[in-house]
Structures are given as structure tokens and as C-alpha cells.
Amino acid sequence: MEENKDTKKNGEVVQEEVPGDTPQETAGEQQEQAKEDVKQEDEAVKALEARVAEVNDKYIRLAAEFDNYRRRTARERLDLISTAGEDIIKGMLPVLDDCERALQVLRESDADKSAIEGTELIYNKLMAYLKGRGLSVIESLGKELDTDYHEAVAQLPVQEKKQKNRIVDVIQQGYKLNDKVIRFAKVVVGV
Fold first, then answer.
1. The sheet that has 150-156: what strands, in order across it?
2. What is d(CA 169, CA 187) in angstroms, rounded to the nearest whole number?
3. What one-character-per-residue DSSP string does 47-109 give?
4. At residue 87, what are phi and psi to the nearest 5 degrees?
5. Start-to-end CA span in the chain (Å)
6. Comparing C-alpha atoms, which of 172, 180, 186 is closest to residue 85?
7. Residues 92-128: tens digit of each pLDDT
8. Regarding the domain delimited by 136-191, which CATH topology (the fold level of the hierarchy) does it fall under?
9. Contact 170, 141 (CB under 8 A)
């Protein structure tokens, strides 16, 4: 870098050049250094932005995974609560079937009116209790065969075309517990 140095000789000011860079060379080097510094800063900023994006992505994925976990466990808990008594209710279905058969036999045999009323009372109380727990009857008679709800155990020839592929008799009533089939209806289908 050349510097000018002012000195006095015989009363005159004389500029002496000091060996070194000229001002133009110094400015060029400073500009190159500044460009290099900007490049390094840009690379550092890009690296930090990439790191922030990566951390943000991991955070979003973790939050989504936790939300899915929370929903899944809530759904499993609701399913468990809604079907908690399924085994008990399944065990009571034969008793319900026996009540239905007893009522049918009593009505067909012209039994005492009080016996019919007593059996109906027991049947209605049992049915009301089970319905309160989410049990519902699968309506079958006269409906078209639906293998999601019905199990065809026999076929019966029918004269009317309307009766074809329709249920003409119910052998055993089917039941659902909170929209889940716990026993398929055993039916006779017209062909």
C-alpha cells in the first residue's frame, strides 16, 4: 500500500510516496472481501433456513402423529364402552328367544289370559332393558336378503315374483348392538 507522506523541504511541502497499495487496489480487495463475506453469510443463512425447515417439518409430523394417536385412542375407548356388555347381552339372547317362544305357545294354546300377560310383562321388561343398552332387532320378514344382516338357512319355492329373493320366514331373530351385528337373523328365502 502506497501512502503519501507530506514532508517539508526548504519550506516547501513535498509529497513523498510510501511504498504500498494504491487506493484503487485497496478498494478492489475490499470489494472482493465483502463479496466473499456476503457469500459466506448467504451460505450460512441458507444452512440455517434448511435447518429451520427440517425442524419445522419434524415438529409438524410429530404434532400430526400425536393428533392421530389421540383420535385413535378416543375411538378405541368409545368402541370399548359401546361394546363392553356385548358378551353379557349375547348370553341373554337365548333367554329372550325363550320368552318369545313361550308367548307364541301360550297364544296358540288358548292359555289363561293372566299367564300370557305375565309372560308379556317379563318379555317387555327384558327387551326394554336390552334396548336401553343399545340392542336393536334386525327387521327381516318381507325384506330382501342382505348377507350383512341375514343368514339364509333354507329356500322355499314361492308363486309370486315379488317374493323371490325375499325373506318369507324368520327362524331365529337377529340383533345388533350399537349398529354392530351380534347375531345374524336366520331366515328362509323365497326362490
1. 150-156, 185-190, 167-172
2. 6
3. HHHHHHHHHHHHHHHHHHHHHHHHHHHHHHHHHHHHTTTHHHHHHHHHHHHHHHHHHHHHHHT
4. -65, -40
5. 111
6. 180
7. 999 999 999 999 999 998 878 899 999 999 999 999 9
8. Nucleotide Exchange Factor Grpe; Chain A, domain 2 (2.30.22)
9. yes
CA distance linking residue 7 with residue 77, whole number of Å: 96
Q: What is the rounded average pLDDT for all residues in the chain?
A: 85
Grid cell in block for residue 137: 332387532
pTM of the entire predicted model = 0.57
| Alpha-carbon span 119 to 36, nearest angstrom | 98
| Contact by Cβ (8 Å): 149, 184 | yes
Closest CA to 154 of 109, 186, 106, 113: 186
**Is 185 exposed, middle or buried, given 0-12, 13-18 or 19+ CB atoms closer than 10 A?**
buried
Cβ neighbourhood burial of 114 (10 Å; 0-12, 13-18, 19+):
exposed
Query: Which three-class secondary structure state does DSSP give residue 137?
Result: strand
- By the 8 A CB rule, do 89 and 106 touch? no
